[in-house]
Design brief:
Elements (H helix, E strand, L loop, with lengths): L2 H29 L4 E6 L4 H15 L3 E6 L12 H19 L2 E4 L11 H14 L3 E4 L7 H14 L19 E5 L13 E4 L4 H8 L3 H4 L17 H22 L1 H8 L1 H6 L3 E6 L8 H7 L5
Parallel strand pairs: 1-2, 1-4, 2-3, 4-5
Antiparallel strand pairs: 5-7, 6-7
Helix pairs in contact: 2-3, 2-6, 3-6, 4-5
Amino acid sequence: MNKLTKLPFLFIPVLLLLLLFAGVSVAQSGENELLRIIAFGAHPDDCEINAGGVAAMWAAQGHAFRCVSLTNGDIGHFGMSGGELALRRMQEVEAAAEILGISTRVFDIHDGELMPTLENRKEVAREIRNWQADIVMVHRRYDYHADHRYSGVLVDDAIILVEAKFFTPDTPPLPRSPVVLYYDDRFQRPLPFVPDIVVSIDDVVDQKRAALEQMPSQFSDKDSWTYGRAENVPEDEETRLRLRIDALMNRNVSIADRFRTNLVELYGEEAGNSIQYAEAFQLSEFGRQVTVDELMQLFPGFD
């Protein structure tokens, strides 16, 4: 056997070593892969209220988080409406997004007029595809507000199609279905919210509060303050805004208290009992199915 015929045999051990090191590199890069999360809300503020804490935590780790409002919020105020209010609310969520370290988009659909049409389903699918989302968040379809309900319906209906090559072929299909998660709510009928993951946001409470404070058109208007049901409304706008934000942050305290057992299971007894503020999410059956352990690997804040 001459030297030339021996060369392939000499290269085999070297080739195996190269493949071994390549495999290690691929495995390590997979563990450190950055996620892309998109969170839909019915109005400008819904995404920030329901997922602003985890958004800030993901963003701090370098992951890409995007809030999308499916309506422009142009009637959610007692003193103004139309284009003036829509522009103001868009500017407010942009300011909030800057604080959270995320991106944001507002659809040009009138507040109160979101419908689960085919065209809107296509737009939602395009948004998920263009973001190449690993995780999608949205309201459940059981809610007091039609815009909230139809946001859930549109995302639920779009998820099955984001992998379909010839649905909205102007956008690239996803390589696999994203994980879909629903925001926490208190509605019991027809089905109550059951959390699959509850996340401590104690480390970013001030950041979330600061983001919500960028939305005075939603929370400080005197005539609509606490949705017109409050007595002795403070005269000072700054006080109204502070008290309303306090109430919103107390929702996160309530979530931690309601799901204390979940927090203990996820964080351990000592840490779980010490958590003050939390956000909770339920896994949708329409997206990619993952275990609780896998959710803990996807979400920030878990060891």
